[in-house]
Amino acid sequence: MPKTTLLTRAFAGIAAGAVLALGVPFAASAHVTVNPDQAEAGGWTYATFRVPTESDTASTTKVVVHLPTDTPFTSVSYQPTPGWTGQVTEEKLPEPVEVSGNTITEAPTTITFTATGDGIAPGQFQAFVVALGPVPDTGHVVMPATQTYSDGKVVEWKATPEEMEKDDTLEPAPVLWINDAPPSSDHHATDDATVTPADAASPATGDGLPLGLSISALVLAVAGVLLGAFAVGRTRKAKR
Hints:
Layout: H1 3-28, E1 33-35, E2 45-52, E3 60-66, E4 75-78, E5 84-99, E6 102-115, E7 125-133, E8 140-142, E9 145-149, E10 154-157, H2 161-166, E11 175-177, H3 197-200, H4 208-239
Antiparallel strand pairs: 1-2, 2-7, 3-6, 3-9, 4-7, 5-6, 8-11, 9-10
Helix pairs in contact: 1-4
């Protein structure tokens, strides 16, 4: 086999492995998530909402995070994000709620981020850091997110974990796990829910399965290179 053909196949293996290694994690995490996704009841926590733009032609211009009203957070603030304005809206709760021995009738219900420029372009994501507390003493908290695009399209990330178990084609809502254990497929959790805003805004590490696929793809790519080099060496010896 010609030397050039062997080298071409070897480099093709590298390219395929690289595409799989880099592409799978992004494809698998292309939805609005909260990280870390675990917190301790009674404390305060920083949380980062990561919002990717899935459209090929439009940018994300607005994101609204809906907070629980049955187990409300009484203190909510956000870290300023360049190119975006933020607003926490407080409203009257459907029913009074006891929080730390106090009866709460009003609480923050939404956090709205609005782009002042072009927003989140196709192929990009934005991290919005918020501080929430006190964390309610409950199993988990679902925080649906409404994503608005520059072309008017609106995506509602609102499916609960229970709904996702029945139909995993739905748009999952960000979930903060407190007393309940996250599903085995959820690997965004961290051992320490109290982190700094800088840590919270760092790029996501991705799910366990995509990470495994990435490693496997890289191993295959390296194996392809070694096999190609070995074949080239044998070809040279045969010509001698």
